[in-house]
Amino acid sequence: MFVYPxxxxxxTCGTTTLLAAIPRLLEIVSQYCxxxxxxxxxxxxxxxxFPERQLHPHKDWKDEVAYLDQHFAAYTVGKVNDxxxxxxxxxxxxxxxxxTIEILMTELSPATIRKFYRKPVDEDSGxxxxxxxxxxxxxxNLYPSALLDSYLFEPCxxxxxxxxxxxxxxxxxxxxxxxSYASFETNIFExxxxxxxxxxxVINIFEPRKFTVTVFNTNTPNTDKKLLISxxxxxxxxxxxxxxxxxxxxxxxxxxxxxxxxxxxx
Length: 266
Known about the structure:
By secondary structure, this protein is an alpha+beta fold. Helices cover 21% and strands 33% of the residues. The chain has two domains: 1-92, 4-Layer Sandwich (S-adenosylmethionine decarboxylase); 93-266, S-adenosylmethionine decarboxylase. Strands 7-8-9-10-6-11-13-12 form an eight-stranded antiparallel sheet. It starts with a strand and ends in a 6-residue tail after the last strand. This is 9980_t:CDS:1.
């Protein structure tokens, strides 16, 4: 959970019921912050690997939309029968410069999976194991000057929260072979021409067979949509299966889905 004077970012995983926190959060900001009106709300998630394991209201996107229908317009981004993302939003026209980059990766390479299991050298310290993984995988090099809090779970799994001045990045890894998954998200601003470098750094660390990228960017009169679109066009060793530009009121969202080329082995 990242808390700012004017916004709150809450990320969860597994079978947690994120939307169920909304009513209580609204009570808290009303009582303690004298906030009676929410400026904008964003809710998004990747299509579930195991939707049958989710709890209400997360069993179905229609249920999630109904839960927050009074605030949100709903979108399905990407192919319905393939990897895709769901997005809800409630937004007013006024906005600050904003950018969020999210990389969702599945079917990680065997070599990658092994790195996210507890080792004897980690002893009983999840924090010590997390620090080891930061160093051995190169995750610490994504933002070398950031404040990083990483944790290695027992017997496997990894989570990390990073802060760089007023911005954040977040990493979560589930390394089990039958459902290996890694996510990376940041609102640390990147010029469009530098976004491919960041994506390459991340996918080179995790070596996924498939990955999805979304770049959510403030739409201003000076926005160059061609640069935004080209920022997720091509990555060595992968074939782009989907690329879509969505234009919202004040924002652009570019979505891309990639799969490893059949003749490229990791």
